[in-house]
Structure formats: structure tokens, C-alpha cells
Specification:
By secondary structure, the protein is mainly α. It is built from 16 helices and two strands. Belongs to the FPP/GGPP synthase family.
């Protein structure tokens, strides 16, 4: 990603304000857990290690996938994928190989991290959030600039939101550019592009569903737990877990059926991750998560916890009172606790992750990559942030 932002052809120097936006967009990529690049690399290395990565002609097993120039990539079979893309790979027995992962895989992995940054920037606009990962967002920086220049508060906020939309657009374009140029293999290029485009569409649909579910949370047809799970799969799990695994496998030349099964496991794992997020968003330790445990309840966000609680009339009344400003977040949290919402959320996440494990156990994955995916399953259920 550093190379992408440093490339002269990706800049537009004629605009006096664009360089500032460009550098602030670049700053949005700092930090993060790098889950999407790791999943991309795990999937790619699993099938490359299995000898599925063919050369230019489809179906030629046992040959490393070609690099961008068409030359074979030099990644040892069985290379562990727990390191982020761009870090040195290891040999089959875990010894350093002093070689970088396949450049195609690195490019695809970077595209998913850039896509993640793009969607977060747009999500912050939708949610009217001005901080992310403990730092001011791109929108907040431009809002401050406008306020410092004397703009009224509403105009400064509009300037910040507008700049954030443009920043997200730039990141989205960059992600698509990386994804669609990650390989010269025509069939794999089309397959990867389809996965990324579908992930973007799914996220947009999920973002809209999130907004609408929250608006209708007290109606006669208030959202149920399954409605929330469907939304969380579309909004986040698809682009964060399902798509990186599918695209990484397809880039390595994996059979479509195996890539599909791996993606199904990713979807379950990703939704489980989001359910844990819901639990941490209300019952987590803010000193550990870095997030308020009041924000979800105060904003009226529809989560699996509130969907569970809405099945109980007493909890529904408390949540309605909270929306009306006649009770406190603490009272709403206590009502959810009494309803068993927290335990229900943990049980649901556990079931989703267990189902993902079952699919993974049925796939012909190398031991290293299988272990890495099982470690990720454990992390999803046991994380505190």
C-alpha cells in the first residue's frame, strides 16, 4: 500500500487541496488488525502449498502462480501465512526462507485492507463518528480546518463529511485498482474481480439494512436476531472474511467448489466475529476495547442483544424509554443482562464459529494453514477488543 500511495501516477498535483487529502487518506491505513490480508494469504498459501497454483494455463498443478510479469513466484510450498503480507515467508518446516510472499497475493491482500479502510471512512460518515482507533478521522481533520478558518459549526461539519466521502471514494478506487491488477492470468483476474465487486455491493446493502433496522427497531415488525445476522453478514462478514478467503483461494488456482466451501466457513466466522462485537459493544471493558460501552445503546443501534431483549416486554419498554430519553443506558444494560441477552450472544457466536470449524475440518488444507484458521476461530471467541 505504501508503494501505491508513493506512485507518482496515483497523484493529482494540479489541485492545491488534493495532496492534503491524499496524505490524510494514507494515514487512515495505519493500525488495524490486518485480518483481511492474513486471511487472503492463508487461503492463497493453502492452495499454493497444495500444488493447485498453476501457471498461465489453467489446470497445471504443481507450478507456482506467475508474478505480475509472468515469471514464477518464489514462495516455498507450505509457507506459513500468519505473517502479514509483505513479511518474510517461512520454509516448509518453519525456517526463514528470506523470500517475500507472492507479489500477486500481496497486491490482493493490500486491496482488501484498502477496501476495509474505504468502508470504515464511509461508515463513520453514516454513523457521524469523528474518531477511529483513538485518532481523529479524515472528516474530523477537515472539520477542524474549516472551523479554524471561521466556518460556522454546521458548515464545518458539512466540510468534514464531504471530505470523508471523497476520501472513502479514493480508497475504494485504489482497492479496486489493486484487486483488478493483481494477476495477469485472465480467468483468475475475472474471478477475483467478481469477488471484490460482490463484496462491495454486499457491504453497501448491509450498511443500508443497518440504518433501516435501527429506524424500525420499535415497530410491529421489529428486527429479529436473524435479521441482524443477515445484516452483519452483508455489511462486514462478506468483505472481511468470506471474500478474502474466496479470492485468495481462487488466485492460487483452487477448485471453485473448495473456494466456495472455504468462503462459507469465512461467512460463519465473520458473522460470529460481529456477534462478539455486539457483546463487547455493550458489555466489554472500554479500557481494553477502546470503545464506549454506551454508544450502541445510546444511538439505538440494532444488535443481536437488543433483538433478543425485544422479545421480552419489560426489556422492550426500557429500550423504548431509553430512546425517549426517560431512562439511562445503565438501566437498559441491566435489563438486557436480566434477559440473558449477553449469554445468548455468546452462545450464538460459539455456534457460528463451531459450524465454521466443521467446514474447515472437511477441507483438504495443509496442516499449517488449518492450524492458523483454527487459531483464528479461537481468537474470535476469546478476544476482548
Amino acid at each position: 500500500m505504501d508503494e501505491f500511495f508513493a506512485a507518482p501516477g496515483n497523484r493529482v498535483p494540479a489541485s492545491p487541496g488534493f495532496p492534503v487529502l491524499w496524505e490524510r487518506v494514507r494515514g487512515q491505513l495505519a493500525g488495524g488488525k490486518l485480518i483481511r490480508p492474513r486471511l487472503t494469504h492463508i487461503a492463497w498459501s493453502a492452495f499454493a502449498a497444495a500444488g493447485s497454483a498453476g501457471a498461465a494455463a489453467p489446470g497445471r498443478a504443481g507450478t507456482p502462480a506467475p508474478g505480475p510479469s509472468g515469471a514464477p513466484a518464489s514462495v516455498p510450498a507450505g509457507a506459513p501465512a500468519s505473517v502479514p503480507p509483505g513479511a518474510p515467508a517461512a520454509g516448509p518446516e518453519g525456517s526463514p526462507a528470506h523470500e517475500l510472499p507472492d507479489p500477486q497475493c500481496v497486491r490482493l491482500a493490500a486491496s482488501f485492507e484498502m477496501l476495509h479502510a474505504a468502508l470504515l471512512v464511509h461508515d463513520d460518515v453514516v454513523d457521524r463518528d469523528w474518531r477511529r482507533r483513538g485518532r481523529p478521522t479524515v472528516g474530523e481533520l477537515f472539520r477542524r480546518d474549516a472551523a479554524a478558518a471561521g466556518a460556522p459549526e454546521h458548515e464545518a461539519e458539512h466540510a468534514g463529511e464531504s471530505a470523508a466521502i471523497l476520501a472513502g471514494d479514493l480508497l475504494l478506487a485504489g482497492a479496486l485498482r489493486l484487486a483488478t491488477t493483481c494477476t495477469t492470468h485472465p480467468e483468475r483476474s475475472r474471478a477475483v474481480a467478481d469477488v471484490v465487486f460482490e463484496a462491495v455491493s454486499a457491504s453497501a446493502a448491509g450498511e443500508l439494512d443497518d440504518l433501516l433496522l435501527s429506524l424500525h427497531r420499535f415497530g410491529a415488525e421489529h428486527p429479529g436476531v436473524q435479521d441482524i445476522l443477515d445484516m452483519e453478514r452483508l455489511k462486514t462478514a462478506t468483505y472481511s472474511f468470506e471474500a478474502p478467503l474466496r479470492a485468495g483461494a481462487l488466485l492460487a488456482g483452487a477448485p471453485a467448489e473448495q473456494a466456495e466451501r472455504l468462503a462459507r466457513a469465512g461467512a460463519l466466522l465473520g458473522v460470529g466475529y460481529q456477534v462478539v462485537d455486539d457483546v463487547l459493544g455493550t458489555f466489554g471493558d472500554p479500557e481494553v476495547t477502546g470503545k464506549s460501552v454506551d454508544a450502541d445503546l445510546r444511538s439505538g443501534k440494532a444488535t443481536v442483544l437488543t433483538a433478543h431483549g425485544m422479545q421480552t416486554p419489560d426489556v422492550r419498554r426500557v429500550l423504548e424509554d431509553l430512546a425517549a430519553g426517560t431512562t439511562t443506558v445503565a438501566a437498559a444494560r441491566a435489563a438486557l443482562t436480566a434477559s440473558g441477552a449477553r449469554e445468548a450472544g455468546v452462545a450464538l457466536a460459539t455456534d457460528l464459529v463451531d459450524r465454521a470449524r466443521g467446514i474447515l475440518d472437511g477441507l483438504p488444507l495443509p496442516p499449517t494453514q488449518r492450524e492458523q484458521l483454527h487459531e483464528l476461530c479461537h481468537h474470535v471467541l476469546n478476544r476482548h477488543s
